[in-house]
Design a protein that fits this description.
Length: 430
């Protein structure tokens, strides 16, 4: 998820700092070694406990961290993520999915603030009961959260952020892929898929053959337009013009004239709603009555208010609406029955499957260790998650060699009557 992130939004600086390592070393000094030593009554096993886990008959508490924006402008999405993770834990506990293990949630608010990501990472790492973290939603937060979790061998599965470099490395756009963090996974598609998916829709279903391509110079925007342009040309389409605009630019009079004179039958915009909205409005005011399409950076109600003449405009959003997912109806029914007052929102099903992945990984470790959780469970979680394959709410859940989901669903949405409506959903090619 990229919407609403602080600018610059696509910095590749994935720095590693020592604050979390210091916390880890402090824990080591205290003797926990960041391994599992806590029984159900939160006491370190003594002579009466088994060497590999708690004493027979006791229940081990495994904590699953959740990092999400629980306050601020994106809190509706964050609360849906937290609640959906909680539903997964409630379901696992009710079914006694892992005998001898009780799951709990530890949720921390990042408020979509990258600075909070590093702070929250320290909170998760220092808690030896945390064996996995679900989140974050925003890619900007991922850049501060993920490196510190990786330093502590703490598995992290995101249900929302889409920055390709987090799984594919900083040179992915040049064709060189290298996984920077082997503990990081995600249950949603990435920006690698968005541009080509939009190109296929506009060309095949939208019947568009001449596109004007514009981006906001950000890594997010240029990444989208690069993928879109390559795919659109491969399909036989023509790019009749290409421009870049500045972040925060509000006057597009010269650009609208260029688009009008180009004969384009659609505009593809790589960037965010706060620039795309005014651009769309000015294009239509100038008589350029063609749709503007972008990525998930446009899929927000704020786009509707920033460009009040947006009817007919389009956006690709990451994922598929819950109602159209394999297990969506059942998930939504159980979510309502659980009594959550906040909606699951778009990313709830993906958070549920991310949480369930951690639960299934714990189950596999317990099974392989003769029914008890091994002391080095945190260190073993990465391999356990890598080997997963199960049918979840969103379909088949499994990860590729980079930690990205193999089930990469996307949705085209259109503005109709001042509201976003679903046009079509599909999967990116494997």
């Amino acid at each position: 998820m990229e919407t609403g992130e602080p600018k610059p939004v696509r910095s590749r600086a994935l720095t590693r700092r020592s604050v979390v390592l210091g916390a880890a070393l402090a824990t080591l000094a205290a003797g926990s070694a960041l391994t599992w030593t806590l029984s159900g009554d939160d006491k370190t096993p003594g002579g009466g406990g088994a060497a590999d886990g708690p004493a027979a008959g006791s229940a081990v508490t495994v904590v699953i961290g959740v990092d999400a924006p629980l306050t601020g402008g994106m809190s509706s999405m964050g609360l849906g993520i937290r609640n959906s993770a909680g539903l997964a834990v409630k379901t696992a506990n009710k079914k006694r999915l892992v005998p001898g293990v009780k799951f709990e949630i530890k949720s921390l608010d990042d408020a979509s603030d990258p600075a909070k990501g590093q702070e929250n990472a320290a909170g998760f790492v220092s808690d030896a009961k945390v064996l996995g973290v679900v989140g974050p939603l925003n890619s900007s937060v991922a850049r501060t959260l993920v490196p510190h979790l990786a330093q502590a061998d703490l598995v992290n599965i995101s249900p929302g952020n889409t920055a390709p470099e987090t799984t594919l490395g900083p040179d992915w756009a040049a064709g060189t892929k290298s996984r920077p963090y082997d503990t990081y996974f995600r249950t949603v598609a990435t920006d690698v898929d968005q541009g080509p998916f939009a190109a296929r829709y506009l060309h095949a279903e939208g019947g568009k053959s001449k596109l004007y391509v514009i981006d906001d110079k950000s890594l997010y925007g240029t990444g989208l337009t690069a993928g879109f342009t390559a795919e659109f040309k491969k399909l036989g389409g023509t790019v009749v013009g290409a421009e870049q605009v500045d972040d925060g630019q509000t006057d597009f009079s010269d650009l609208t004239a260029s688009v009008r004179g180009s004969g384009a039958d659609a505009v593809y915009f790589g960037g965010y709603y706060d620039t795309a909205g005014p651009l769309s409005k000015q294009l239509k005011e100038a008589g350029v009555d063609i749709p503007l399409m972008g990525g998930d950076g446009l899929f927000t109600d704020a786009f509707l208010t920033s460009g009040p003449k947006a009817d007919g405009d389009l956006a690709v959003n990451i994922g598929v609406p819950a109602e159209e997912l394999a297990g969506g109806a059942d998930f939504l029914a159980r979510y309502r029955e659980a009594g959550y007052t906040d909606g699951a929102d778009w990313y709830g099903p993906y958070a549920y499957d991310a949480t369930w992945s951690i639960i299934e990984a714990v189950k596999s470790l317990v099974t392989a260790n003769g029914g008890t959780l091994p002391r080095d469970a945190r260190a073993k979680m990465q391999q356990a998650v890598s080997r997963l394959a199960f049918d979840g709410v969103t379909g088949r859940v499994a990860f590729d060699e980079y930690g990205d989901t193999r089930n990469r669903g996307l949705t085209v949405c259109s503005v109709s009557g001042g509201r976003w409506t679903t046009v079509t959903s599909g999967a990116a090619p494997s």
